[in-house]
Amino acid sequence: MPAITSTVPGKVILFGEHAVVYGRPAIAVPVHQLQARAVVQADLRGPSGSVRLEAPDIGLSAGLDELRQDHPLRLAIRLVLQELGVEGPPASTVRVTSTIPVASGLGSGAAVSVAVIRAYATFLGHVLPIERVSALAFEVEKIHHGTPSGIDNTVVAYAMPVYYVRGSPGRIEPFQAAAPFTLVIGDTGIPSPTRRAVGDLRLAWEREPEPYERLFDAAGEIAERAREAVEAGRPLEMGPLMDENHALLQQMGVSCRELDHLVQAARRAGAQGAKLSGGGRGGNMIALVEPDRAEAVAQALREAGAVRTIITTIR
Ligand code: PMV
User: Fold this and answer.
1) Does the N terminus or the C terminus of the chain have fewer Cβ atoms within 10 A?
2) Is the pTM of this model over 0.90?
């Protein structure tokens, strides 16, 4: 039996993080330079039902049942077996590798889940539809995030730009940029505590909802305008919108000195606009650039303290 491989991109949130948790629209895009991969191989000597998990990046090599109940990889496999109604699957080894930095808002957890779910289901003879892959990965995301909006698993499962509104039914609208645009991603090197940022914001919102509701509304409107600009082939119009969105995120209390510093550095180096991306308080920021400025902005970010920069083109 040949090995089954699934490769899934990383992602950044372009607009609307945090506000998306409160039902406002957000936009996320895949980052194809970063990838999680799952390879499932039949294990001809293994006893029926056994699943071995190998994740050399994190030093993991264990049987499924040796992992704690709520281990994300264990849960991903269990969810597939449950979805397909399979008991006693053929013995296999699932090998997971990833170039997506963890805990930095680049979708590492969601991408690993999607890769494992898709590859393992295919190994069992079922090509799951994207919505189901995403829905199962969402269950795993709850371990990482607590109350995730679902945007991360959605964008990496579709591997396309996605306009996203949570809810039931919510709206998931993959779309294409009418003209490509270039982003520079800069990493503060500080692990992004998404769960804590989301939790702190919730406490603040519970104490005093109105001002936060206004911030969320404003972020949602920005996401709408950004989508129009991208679909109309005028991506550079997103620059000022990014600056506005960053200011709103600062007011939500989810930026930090290092993110603000990188955002400023990108603007000074000629970016069209810049903002934090994802949970905030660390992790990554993004800058929209004209392609011929990309390298200069990336260099300015590194000089300003970014531990890693990635230049990516969104299509
Ligand atoms: O830190 P990230 O990129 O995984 O994303 C968090 C995005 C939030 O809107 C802050 C939370 C969510 O679940 O949407």
Assistant:
1) N
2) yes
Instruction: Choose which residue among 34, 108, 149 to substitute to test ligand 1 binding: the one with the highest number of ligand atoms within 8 A of its C-beta.
Output: 149
The pair of structure tokens assigned to 17 is 């993080």
Decide: 113 in ligand 1 pocket, CB within 6 A.
no
Contact call for residues 14 and 277 (beta carbons, < 8 A)? yes
User: Dihedral through CA 236, CA 240, CA 284, CA 119, nearest 10?
Assistant: -50
pLDDT digits (tens, 9 = 90+) for 12-47: 999 999 999 999 999 999 999 999 999 999 999 989
Q: Map residue 179 onto helix, strand or coil.
A: coil
Q: What stretches of 27-124 show up as alpha helix (H) in DSSP?
A: 72-84, 108-123
Residue 107: closest CA among 145, 163, 50: 145
Instruction: Kindly report, residue by residue over 109-161, the tens digit of the pLDDT.
Output: 999 999 999 999 999 999 999 999 999 999 999 987 778 899 999 999 999 99
